[in-house]
């Protein structure tokens, strides 16, 4: 990265797009148990019977894979200077957990739906709800940084570098 104090515009675009899509997918989860039963009973395959939950969730899965590749290629800016080491560690591990959950949640949904493995359905919903809780905590921490600690944490995820 050219500027090590901020994320790239691509990383920022993916972060916010994925956040909105995750929220929408979660919101549209109602009735998926019924949709899955219909898919099994009528022996539908491929994209037949896909709902908005499935389309948006599948988009999340693809975008998260792209995001992980971009992250691997471009890295992340160095932690904000002057933070206690414990806070820095919590940030690193919190972000790793978010990456894991935001990959696992749609991947498990896709296994349930496309491979018709019903047993993965409940764990999928559980992991998806865990993702929402961790993401909510993450958002509150970001706002705490911005409004109380008044550091650059939120700015580096809103004003990016060109690469
Ligand atoms: C970030 C992405 C996703 C989130 C946050 C999410 C969230 C949820 C939630 C909360 C439920 C439980 C809904 C309820 O019972 O009221 C659910 C169910 C379900 N989702 Fe997802 N989902 C995601 C991605 C996907 C994808 C990509 C697919 C399929 C390609 C999928 C397929 C399903 C199915 C089949 C169920 C019903 C499971 C069952 O009742 O056994 N989801 N999802
Ligand atoms: C579903 C919702 C969200 C998910 C899954 C998510 C996920 C992530 C992940 C994985 C990172 C680490 C980026 C990296 O190291 O490559 C990150 C960074 C960040 N996110 Fe989120 N995020 C979500 C919503 C939000 C919201 C609502 C806010 C603000 C209110 C926010 C603010 C930030 C900030 C400021 C950073 C940069 C932190 C730093 O540089 O230390 N995120 N997010």
From TrEMBL:
GO terms for molecular function: electron transfer activity; heme binding; metal ion binding. Keywords: Cell membrane, Electron transport, Heme, Iron, Membrane, Metal-binding, Transmembrane, Transmembrane helix, Transport. GO terms for cellular component: plasma membrane. It is found in: Cell membrane. InterPro entries: Cyt_b561_bac/Ni-Hgenase, Cytochrome_b561_oxidase, Di-haem_cyt_TM. This is Cytochrome b561. Belongs to the cytochrome b561 family. Residues 6-160 form the Cytochrome b561 bacterial/Ni-hydrogenase domain. GO terms for biological process: respiratory electron transport chain. Its main location: membrane. It comes from Loktanella salsilacus. The chain crosses the membrane at residues 12-29, 52-70, 97-115, 127-149. It is a multi-pass membrane protein. Its cofactor is heme b.
